[in-house]
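Quick one:
INPUT:
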């Protein structure tokens, strides 16, 4: 059995699905960083691809955790393509923004949101961001 290549797991099709999903949740957003992300995926490993998409998502939805959270929740509820490998960079964005904000409210909300998203794909890597920030 052959292992899939990184571009098969998280290639342009995933980046495009992420754009579609976020567009459903936030139709007024231009998503210029997410739209440009596929050009940055070539030659990258799986983790790096996830990081490129995470950074693009965070750039396209600037501000506080409270601005990112409802967009992710709407995408999860409204977009049929919001599943699979695109969840990895989304969970990473959620955890990253919560840690940057560094409030109990954002941390608790991120934990709860990760529990919702892990039903679509494991939040294993994102939860590590939160654990490193606040081990107890």
């Amino acid at each position: 059995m052959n292992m899939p290549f990184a571009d098969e797991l998280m290639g342009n099709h995933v980046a495009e699905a992420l754009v579609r999903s976020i567009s459903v949740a936030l139709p007024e957003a231009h998503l210029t960083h997410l739209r440009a992300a596929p050009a940055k995926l070539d030659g990258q490993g799986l983790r790096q691809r996830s990081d490129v998409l995470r950074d693009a998502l965070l750039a396209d939805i600037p501000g506080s955790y409270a601005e990112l959270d409802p967009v992710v929740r709407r995408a999860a509820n409204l977009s049929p393509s919001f599943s699979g490998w695109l969840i990895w960079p989304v969970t990473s964005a959620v955890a990253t923004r919560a840690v940057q904000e560094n409030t109990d409210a954002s941390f608790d909300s991120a934990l709860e949101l990760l529990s919702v998203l892990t039903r679509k794909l494991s939040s294993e890597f994102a939860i590590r961001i939160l654990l490193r920030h606040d081990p107890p």
